[in-house]
Amino acid sequence: MLKPRLITALILIPMVIGVLFLLPPTAFAGVILMVCMLAAWEWGQLAGFVNSGQRLCLAILCGLLLVVMLLSIPRHQYSVDLLQIGIPLWISLGWWLTALILVLTYPRSAVFWRNSRILTIIFGVLTIVPFFCGMFALRQYDYQQSHTAGAWWLLYLMLLVWGADSGAYFFGKTFGKHKLVVKVSPAKTWEGLLGGLLTSALISCLFSHYAPLELSHKKLLICSVVAALASVLGDLSESMFKREAGIKDSGHLIPGHGGILDRIDSLTAAVPVFTCLMLLVF
């Protein structure tokens, strides 16, 4: 299993960097739109859709919603002050606080949404749409002054999240004894969480010194720690929904990594939370 994961990662990492730095904003938005539609397709399985046609309709509706949102934005005006971008980012903070409660109280919390397909779909919308808005807004950051400023921020955030995930895995395997949320994800431990945060802090220190990130060290550290914690919550919440749906992976699109949701679950929480803190709070 480790070999295909490494091979896939070696292929995907250059592709991701190329998408971040080489594509113009419109093309970048198109790529993220396709990713979100694939995520919506996989979320259909979490919502209980076993029919491919139903899941396809869910993916198309998600894509149409995002396209309408994009078309409603005036050309070259991509500020987070716009309601179409700012409101979903603010809403995402409320959703992830709610998700935290759902995860910590699972399986009791599932009594309220277990048999409601509509509620599960709403949870999916609250996960995917703010993720799209966060990716889009962060890529557009200071675009008039520097075409790559937003790309650097997104690369930093991705490395931060992936570093937290890798640090948590290795620390958890080596030192893990105390379970984090055993009823949601038995493999995760408090030692792993601490290791992930330490890895994120190290990445934050190194990246802030060698990359063009224009934010004070104190504010960057706050945004980074909260984003790292949010990434863990994103992972746990998807695990909760998969456990409730009785599936191990959200899909099989990425060899060795499962589905799109399995690969971006941490980012779906970290991206909107980080973007909201950085662009709307600080």
Question: Would you write up a description of this structure?
Answer:
The chain is mainly alpha-helical and 282 residues long. It has one domain (26-72, 81-281). It has helices at 2-22, 25-46, 52-71, 83-104, 117-139, 149-175, 190-210, 217-245, 260-281; strands at 179-181, 185-189. β1 and β2 form a beta hairpin. The longest helix has 29 residues, at 217-245. It is an enzyme of class 2 (transferase). Keywords: Cell membrane, Lipid biosynthesis, Lipid metabolism, Membrane, Nucleotidyltransferase, Phospholipid biosynthesis, Phospholipid metabolism, Transferase, Transmembrane, Transmembrane helix.
Fold blueprint:
Layout (H helix, E strand, L loop, with lengths): L1 H21 L2 H22 L5 H20 L11 H22 L12 H23 L9 H27 L3 E3 L3 E5 H21 L6 H29 L14 H22 L1
Helix pairs in contact: 2-3, 2-5, 4-5, 4-8, 4-9, 5-6, 5-9, 6-7, 6-8, 6-9, 7-8, 8-9
Brief summary:
With 282 residues, the chain is an all-alpha fold. It has helices spanning 2-22, 25-46, 52-71, 83-104, 117-139, 149-175, 190-210, 217-245, 260-281; strands at 179-181, 185-189.
Keywords:
282 residues, mainly alpha, two-stranded antiparallel ribbon, 9 helices, 2 strands, 73% helix, cell membrane, PC_trans, EC 2.7.7.41
